[in-house]
Amino acid sequence: QVQLVESGGGLVQTGGSLRLSCAASGRTFSSLTMGWFRQAPGKERREFVAAISETAVITVYADSVKGRCTISRDNAKNTVSLQMNSLKPEDTAVYHCVASISGDPYYVPRAELLYDYWGQGTQVTVSS
Fold first, then answer.
1. What HEC string does the chain produce?
2. 125, 111, 128: which is closest to 35 by C-alpha?
3. pLDDT, tens digit, for every residue of 2-16?
4. Burial, 6: exposed, middle or buried (Cβ in 10 Å; 0-12, 13-18, 19+)?
5. Regarding predicted confidence, which is higher, 80 or 105?
6. In percent, how much of the chain has pLDDT > 70?
7. How many CB atoms lie within 10 A of CB 124?
8. Could you give phi then psi for residue 70, rounded to 5 degrees?
9. Rounded to the nearest 10 degrees, how much is the dihedral formed by the CA atoms of 93, 86, 55, 74?
C-alpha cells in the first residue's frame, strides 16, 4: 500500500505561481512512477497533468500545461513536486498526486486507470 499526501495548493492570481508537493510512504519510492492529475469544478473526468519516471529520466506533460509546469522528484526524500507558473483561471482544480507500480523504469503513462494509488488532492484556485 502506498500513501500519498499533497500540499501546496491555494489561491493565486492569474499569472502567479504555486508549487505542489506530494509525500509518499509505504513502498520504495524509487520503484514508483509518479504523476499529477486534476479535476476541474463541475467536470467528471480527471485530466492528466504531468508524470515522471522512477529515476526522472522521462517526464511528460499535458499540452495544456507544457512550458508552464515542471514535475520533479527527490527519491531521497520520497517526494514529487509540480512547479506551476503563469497560472490561468482554467488551471483551477483539485490536483491529485498519483503513483504507479510497474517495474519499468521508462514507464510514464497518461491514462488515469494505469495509476494504482491516489492522494486526496489539494485545491488550486486561480482568480482572474
1. CCEEEEECCEEEECCCCEEEEEEEECCCHHHEEEEEEEECCCCCCCEEEEEECCCCCCEEECCCCCCCEEEEEECCCCEEEEEECCCCHHHCEEEEEEEEECCCCCCCCCCHHHCCEECCCEEEEEEC
2. 111
3. 999 999 999 999 999
4. buried
5. 80
6. 100
7. 21
8. -135, 125
9. -80
For residue 96, give the nearest of 124, 78, 72, 119 by alpha carbon.
Answer: 119
| Cell numbers that stand for 56 in this block | 526522472
Phi, psi of 91 (to 5 degrees): -85, -5
Reading the block at residue 70, the C-alpha cell is 515542471
Report the alpha-carbon distance of residue 12 to residue 31 in Å, rounded: 34
